[in-house]
Amino acid sequence: MRLSNSDLRLVTVNTPEMNFGNKRVPEPIAEDATRYVKDRISNKQLYLEEMGVDRYQRRLGNVWIKEAGRDHSFLLSERLIANGLGFQIFESDSRYAACLKQAELKARSNKLGVWQYSDYWLNVERGGFALWSGRLQKVSKSKQFYWWRLSDSRVVRVPKLWLDELGIETKKKGDLIELRGWVIHRKKTRYEPYMLPLRSPQILLKN
């Protein structure tokens, strides 16, 4: 979102990109999500819960929108997810995780928006945001991380410290998982070329 003096990234939702990849083309539902946000914030009173800045100097936070004639505000992220215009993401802010989860479950069961394009989000050869699921083929560990291998080309990187803090055990070979995040393409490596580094321990509580 573009504010008057800076860009804002919502911390609890990821929407498809308008200018994705080298060809700078919209991802599925990206144009719908963009129109939805513009319609919802136009001439509305906005409340920003600010949570710092990211490495691109974008402001981070949640946006609440006050609609005329109503006593309460609504969370923009929840509306986006409920309409299938984005995915719940798990970062530092977990206060709204339960309501966002319910919104996503309903949108997913009704195959709204992004959930009509499940194969696209599972495509590991495009990088960017992905939704990975499957049974683990192998689990290994290094000094700082567990490595959950899904296939010859896909591996999930999990900080060991998170598992200790949450008091949960690592997954094992054969376990079924579903995880999401931004895929890194490791072009010159003897390991799996596509790695999904988890960005928040909150996502582990979902599995």
From TrEMBL:
Domain of life of the native organism: Bacteria
Q: Which SMART domains match?
A: SNc
Under the heading Gene3D superfamilies, the entry gives: 2.40.50.90
InterPro entries the UniProt entry points to: SNase_OB-fold_sf, Staphylococal_nuclease_OB-fold, Thermonucl_AS
Keywords on this record? Answer: Endonuclease, Hydrolase, Nuclease
Q: Where is the TNase-like domain?
A: 1-117
For this entry, the protein name equals: Thermonuclease family protein
